[in-house]
Please model this.
Amino acid sequence: MLKITIPSNNYQERAYILDVLFNQFLKIDYSLIISTNFTDESAINIDNERRILIKDSFFSRYPKNLEYLQRSSIPKTVEYFKHSLLVEQDIPILFGKGEIDIEEKTIVSHIDIFATLFFMLTRWEEYVIQERDEHNRFPHTASLAYKEGFLNRPIVNEYIELFWNLLQKVGYKGERGEKKFSMLLTHDVDEIQRYPNLKKVIMGMGGDILYRKSFSLPFKTLYDYFLVSIKRRKDPYDSFDEIMDTSDAFGVTSHFFFMAGGTTNRYDNRYSINNPRIKEILEKIRSRGHSIGLHPSYNAYNNSEQFKKEKEALERVNNYPITSGREHYLRFEVPTTWQLWENNGFKWCSNLAYPRSAGFRTGSCYPYTPFNILSQEKLNVQERPLIMMEVTFIEATKTIKEFDTMVNYYLNIIKKYNGEFVLLWHNASFKEASIVQYAPSYIKTLKKFKELVELK
Model:
């Protein structure tokens, strides 16, 4: 068993990141010792002779509790470091400096690996930076990862591999826990009907002319509405059977996240959870072995009363506990939103992605348990970082070919680290007029995933 000695200040923060790295990511047993003397390093002792020293360039600078939570604590610049122990050709250095001293029985890393993992996974950066978009979301353009050009890299995973290579280099003979490349297939159900009423049809026809620049499409929209109204055709957004058929064919589970209320008319209340049709859909999803979760409404991401109310409403209709989900519009506030999922007994959520940029918001393609930076407590709810939202990828590319190329990039890199590819494809997107042409790419994505799984 490894013996790890850490400085005494910022103990909760240090203990958290060690738990994530060793217990959750590497699955290596260790014992933790708090140094009684002032030290600016953490020591990982393999035995009485061999050890790794991680120089502390971050927490040692902030001895007072929560003192690090200030904008000036964020690195001003990032250097890129090359070394033979890296799995990529270089790695961004956020804290410390790009130096690794290797002797026969001791390795000294001047790269503050632990502070880097803590920075990326807790997202404390988003707490101290006040920039927000029109939906009160932290924008990707304000992140260090975007500014310094590593948003499209899972640097947490890169750092894990660097640390593992350091362990092996110094003579550690133990095993690490196995990770398997996997997919989490999710569908946010913002709407269940394209044609809930004639007003929506007229608005759709207007969109056909103004946005889709077609004078024939409005007549098709009106004809489709007529067929749906006389039950000769399913509503285009009623794609649940087709989604589950596809998932069954590929041997994956679909997770459908339903809304159960809301406080706005502009962003919420596109259907009622008490609609008899919803109950039918939920029963069919359960009977087919797929999963149902919560899609909290627009203003529920930082409203404990509203959040709890919606979870209870969905559970009443579903008749089963709800233990997973994702925020509407990807609205998220550090650490408030995670704490809501924790307080309401969820097993996992998948919120961490930037709505307007592809990339690794947490730097990780592994699920992990978050940390409340204010209460200084590790939470039990698991964050499963969202990797791909179809709308984000569509907006980032100009052609279907570029879209597929981007998907393949993320699939391949997550395969490299045996991570979890979390995909969001809305149920309405398969027939949404403006993006329906991308529907075949959904199948391509599942096929590519299956190919990579089977690739040895």
Remarks:
- The chain has three domains: 2-169, 182-192+235-454, 195-234.
